[in-house]
């Protein structure tokens, strides 16, 4: 009497698992990016739209809605100004938070190409450190320090990498 009940439970559990997990397993691990939906303030000056989407993105980031934050920053990049470095920096921050390091590195690299700020080099160095690419990280921290030799943040981050490499005298 108990055996048929157990068999039925196992069949139902297997079917439930297959119907819920199979579509997820079949998904492409790197989905094609969907163009952002940027309908707010259409027709307004670019500075107003940029302010809106940057503020919206930061708000979404602060509330943990990372996909929406990425969409907001992408609106600035795709629709308003593809050379606006702060949008790449902000999107890279969110991507780093999501552990999407490759895309974060791409955005930081674009931001560096648009102006090479201390923050862009420092943040890219952090992502390289998270990936255990210490030589690249050190190169970026050195670039940050070339912009401000007294940057406590860059000095600290470089010291952390030296410590991770076991070079405690350099840290």
Report the major sheet: none
Q: Taking all residues together, what is the mean pLDDT?
A: 85
Number of strands: 0
Q: What is the share of helical residues? A: over 70%
The stretches of 5 or more residues where confidence is low (pLDDT under 50) are 12-32
Task: State the distance separating the first and last CA atoms.
Answer: 70 Å
Radius of gyration: 22 Å
Coarse morphology: elongated
SSE string, helices as H and strands as E: HHHHHHHH
Number of helices: 8
Strand content: under 5%
Q: What structural class do you assign from the helix and strand content?
A: mainly alpha
Explain briefly what this protein structure is:
This protein is mainly alpha-helical.
